[in-house]
Amino acid sequence: MARKETAADAAEAGRLKQIALTYKMTRKADPKIGLVLAAVGIVTLGVFLAIGFLIGHPIYLGILGLLLAFLATAIVFGRRAERAAFGQMEGQPGAAAAVLDNIGRGWTTTPAVAMNRSQDVVHRAVGKAGIVLVAEGNPNRVKSLLAAEKKKMARIVADVPVHDVIVGTGEGQTSLKKLRTTMLKYPRVLTGPQVTATNDRLRAMGDLLTNMPLPKGPLPKGMRMPRGGPKGR
């Protein structure tokens, strides 16, 4: 029994430490986060207390307001923390791959299926919407990488729809924070077995990672492809 309590206490301490770390990281990008959270909590609790006094049940409404104030604060904190995280990742090589890794069930992602020496990269995600090629880097250069990958897809999986996304903040590009939403909006046209078959065919084809291991998440700034290494295909 004591061991279970110790494990539970350790898990709780770990969660509190993670929340504190997330708050510190968020505050660096969003200095007003503390004031915003306090305002949300106070306003929510105040509204329910006012209603409670009006109807003659301040205690009941106060307790309900306290719970909802905590919930509203947690929701606002989560959204602003996510926004701050995306803001810090925006523009970093490999940031899109980190988002794809957390897109959710039903998707199989392969980072850096094509890359050039300027760190322009194309990642691939396969799901019921088909194949999505996600490019990040110089808009003009990644277009040639995308065209080469699309040509390859046409030879290997001609019966599967292929979508392409260029991550960025310019015209015609998709921002990092909207990447997941954009991909989930694509219509689902493949069945589970078709997705599996598509992944098998692409795996048999091989990709850049077969010959060059890359770290997970955003790539270190200043990293360059080795001379003589594979270029975008």
Automatic annotation (TrEMBL):
Keywords: Membrane, Transmembrane, Transmembrane helix. It comes from the Bacteria. Residues 210-233 are annotated as: Disordered. The chain crosses the membrane at residues 33-53, 59-78. Signal peptide: none annotated. InterPro entries: DUF4191. This is DUF4191 domain-containing protein. Residues 219-233 have a biased composition (Low complexity). Coiled coil: none annotated.
